[in-house]
Amino acid sequence: MSIRTPEELTQTLANDLSWRKKELSEIKSLIELKNVSSQRHNVFIRSGICILYAHWEGFVKLSANSYLEYVRTKKLRYRELSSNFLALAMKEKLKEAKETNKSSLYIPVCDFFLFQLDERCSLPKNPISTASNLSSEILKEITHTLGIDFSIYSTKSELIDQTLLKTRNEIAHGEYSLLIDREKYIELHTTVMDMLEIFRNQIENAAINENFMITK
User: Fold this and answer.
1) pLDDT averaged over the chain?
2) CB-CB contact of 187 with 180 (8 Å)
3) What are the residue boundaries of the structural domains of the chain, listed by start?
4) CA distance 42 to 144
5) Through-space distance between the first and last CA atoms of the chain, rounded to whole angstroms
6) CA distances from 10 to 3, 18, 57, 87 (A)
7) What is the pTM assigned to this prediction?
8) How far apart are alpha carbons 160 and 154 in whole angstroms?
């Protein structure tokens, strides 16, 4: 889907986050029930952790790639791109040169920076991958690629890596992992919802402020 304006980007993110919030609200209401057996309650929590992680990863990936799609539609010249987007555009060329000892493969890279910066940029489609394991390190890489601030999440690295990702992986791999009770799940739910809103705001602000450009 082509996203050509900040308003279209905002609507795309709002629509995606809306259904995720509804689903997460439903599972949270089940976990908050008091008149259920402990076994059923544990099933709700284990299911909730997997769904909570799925929406965390899914929204970050969709938001990031939606923002990149918006930048693609601007059809900017290479020299107009901020350094993070120029690096993304050059990623394959640089990777090919790096993986060989042939000096000749660096010549096209040099030619690009000498003669081709005024050409229309070509950004890859859907380049952001979470590798199905959105750890704090992968999130940091994504924010650097997008040119947005990671420091907001730095204090939540342990929560992302241990409470959310590690527990989800153990459950998904068939292990009986249940270190989270009702209160801790609700706290985790609230924190993840806050991070989703923060990430959405960062993406929207980056688009509105044209942070993808080296000059305004």
Assistant:
1) 90
2) no
3) 6-77+130-208
4) 37
5) 26
6) 10, 12, 19, 25
7) 0.91
8) 10
